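Onboarding guide, step 5: your first structure request.
Type a short instruction followed by the sequence, for example:

Predict the 3D structure of this protein.
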Amino acid sequence: MRAKLTANTLKTLKPKSRRYDVRDTEITGFLVRVYPSGVTTYFYQYRNEKQLRRHYRIGAVGTLSPHQARDRAKGLAGKHLGGIDVQAEKKAKRAKGAIEKDQIWGVFLEQQYKPWVLEHRRQGIETVRRLETNFGDLKKKPFADINNWILEKWRTKRLKAGISKSTLNRDVGDLKAALTKAVEWGLLDVSPLAKLKPFKLDQTPNVRYLSSLEEEQLREALTTRDERKKFERISANKWRKERGYTLFPMLTKHAYSDYLTPLVLLAKNTGMRRGELFNLRWENVTLDEKRLTVVGAKTKSSQTRHISLNKEATKVLKSWQKQTSTQGLVFPSEKGTSLTNIKNSWTGLLKSAGIKDFRFHDLRHDFASKLVMAGTPLNTVRDLLGHTDIKTTLRYAHLAPEHQASWVEKIK
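The system replies with structure tokens like these:
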């Protein structure tokens, strides 16, 4: 494809399943490359003295205007006509320590990768936060100086500090993904961490779920918490009335004091992830049909799934809908936006219930474990949880009552 590379031309370019180039009609070798991710980059293409095709990265669209990129392309074309291999010259400068600004990790993260990941990744905010927190010491380093040895030392230090291998795999994976993008965008020839292997993990880890006693304690703690908060509201309004202040809405007429009880009970009865619950909207809940829909854009796998609601989940949602609203988010924050963190209320609940080493995410494991122990087929569990790979669901297989016993009985 050929066209004069102007601001208007660039606005018309849309990403496709494969990357493609649009060549300028005026300057030979000047082009933009459009990646499937939506990133568009200016390049100058030429052949060196050995007639090998080379691509010199000029800069990203958005960082440079078409006019600026055109001027740089003209300069590169002039050097090429003068017999200079501009790509080789660039590498020589790197070898002498002359590093371009956008090849410094901190600059790249802030100016290029951060805007992209926030736009294209559902967990973009968390990814950027982890990169900034975990690899802040690297921000002044050129890409070429980020090597396996530096990361091995970093991992060893973190292991000694008690960080799990799975967490380290995730954090290093974030960094490797960012460097892979730098390669895709022409800032690196090859990722310096391409050969860094993740830690091997136990593929069938212990699954944490609630014992019968713990479940009883959790439910009792939820009930006690609601009753306490309702009583506190009565006391607060009595105090405010005596002083002529506006009264808070009464809670005694409602089933719950706030979002925590319905949120926990719905998680326990549906196996939904925390983020899926935070983003659940009433238009995706059909109480008459006892079903809710988890929209793909809000899921880890990006796949929409439908979940049947049991009696308790249906009752909880009906009571919560009557108490709150029939539109918008099911569990909004006080500002009306999506919840982002319930750490304090969850930690307080566990302390009141006397339950240790149990994360909110373990409610999902509890849901799956109870299904498997009741004899539910693993493929059905997979569908309910939204796993893209049955291998993920197999972590619960050992809980099936017939899983091992029925087979060992076949030995004669």
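Each response can be followed by summary notes, for example: The two ends are 72 Å apart (CA to CA).
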